[in-house]
Give the backbone structure.
Amino acid sequence: MAPYFETVKSFADVTVTDAGVDTLEFLQAADGVVALFDVLGSTAFTAVQSDIKGNIAKVRARYDAVPAQSATLEQLVESEKGEKKRPATEGLMWLLRGLSFTCKALQNAQANTSEELSVAFSKSYDASLKKFHNFVVKGIFAVAMKACPYRADFYAKLASDPAGGPPVPADKLNEELSKWLAALDSIVKRVEAFYEKGGHNKGF
């Protein structure tokens, strides 16, 4: 095992063309977010992690069923349009919301270096997922926010090499993380705008 950003696909390496966002590359990068919650190390985030994992599986199942029509996320959603049930469209919608929450939280952490992760994640939750959740789920997230690891511990884990190699220097880690987040933010906004324009988020 190498340090975190050397073991996952960066969103900065996901191909985005006029046709849309490459489905397989996006799913590989999204798998990296699942691994990120392992780095956070709190069992309180299990619900978030399993939700993201489940939605990745729904999108991947659609891709596996009709790969020729699912090369990009946009094509995949269009191919499901008109069907009675649209599990991949709904799954991707929720996946984007989960990724947006994670992205905003870490962008907050990057922008405010004196802020603890619990504050960064709480602000992100209020700005992203909270409006979609009922009382029970809000309670689960409130517990998760409080259980965030200390900022210094989290960044040290991101930089460390589990195999015992030297840790990644702080400036390189921040550069990689900022690049990863900027690309993720851009992809989420692009696909969310596509959903809005096409009315793909209706009916859920």
About this structure: The mean pLDDT is 89. The chain has one domain: 20-152+167-198. The radius of gyration is 17 Å.
